């Protein structure tokens, strides 16, 4: 939703050999030494401080570290004060297994051809 002014001509180019070096925190201007951090923080390229900071800046975008996804999302994906993104919290409630696109089509098709709500109305009338 936000159109950040592209003040820098900085393109996200990764140096070759990426993965061999000690990763650094993704947050703009952060110089934390992740080699001293726990494995968790190294793996997700965030320092401990910024994994708990409610608002950080990454490439000029306001982001927050999601404790559920273990990655950064933009702030709009969080409810205020939450450490997990809205999507994830939502998914906890209703995500059980992925519905198959085919099954969905079949279902809605049969629903359309057989609308519920007025089944045995006339039947009940006749009964009276
Ligand atoms: Zn950091
Ligand atoms: Zn998330």
Automatic annotation (TrEMBL):
Gene3D superfamilies recorded for this chain? Transcription factor, SBP-box domain
Compositionally biased spans, kind Polar residues: 102-113
Keyword Zinc recorded = yes
Where do the record's region annotations for Disordered lie?
85-117
Q: Which SUPFAM superfamilies does this entry report, sorted A to Z?
A: SBT domain
Q: Where is the SBP-type domain?
A: 22-99
Lineage: superkingdom: Eukaryota
Matches recorded under Pfam families: SBP
Q: Which UniProt keywords apply?
A: Metal-binding, Zinc, Zinc-finger
Name the UniProt record assigns to this protein: SBP-type domain-containing protein
**What organism is listed for this UniProt entry?**
Gossypium arboreum (Tree cotton)
